[in-house]
Amino acid sequence: MDESWVPVLVLTPIATLVVAYFLAWRSKSAKLRKSGTRLLAIALGLVALFSSWWALGMTALVWSGGELKLRDIPPRLILEIVVLVFPFGLWYLCVRYAKLAVKSDPPVEEKS
After folding, report:
1. 51 Cβ contact list (under 8 Å, min separation 6)
2. CA pair distance 30, 60, nearest whole angstrom
């Protein structure tokens, strides 16, 4: 892989999450807050999906010697749940923001 793309690949998801956060929580328009919350839920869902995929691949292939059968996947999922909490935290945040995006009115912060 060409190393010149590494900063772009690392900074793009971070910038997307920051922009979505500011749209979701700091915008004055209800439509912008709702779309920012949806964007945040989608971005967190994608990050959670890929981190779960990575974690499952890591736990499955490290102890199986490179060969993986279907019956080996459930114990590896349990191991992922016990050892690797990071993807599940992301799934929790994704579901939380998705529920918030589905609500009719997003929360409004009152400024004094």
Report:
1. 86, 87, 90
2. 44
Mean pLDDT across 67-96: 76
Give the tokens for residue 17. 């999450």
Distance CA 55, CA 104 (A): 35
Instruction: Report the residue count for the chain.
Output: 112
Tokens of 49: 């999906």
What gap in Å lies between CA 63 and CA 56, rounded to an integer?
12
Q: Is the pLDDT of residue 67 over 80?
A: no
pTM above 0.70, yes or no: no
CA-based Rg of the chain, rounded to a whole angstrom? Answer: 18
Look-up: residue for tokens 């793309």? Answer: 5
Nearest to 75 by CA among 64, 87, 91, 67: 64
Q: Which amino acid is at 94?
A: C
Compute the CA torsion angle 95, 98, 100, 106 (nearest 10 deg). 160
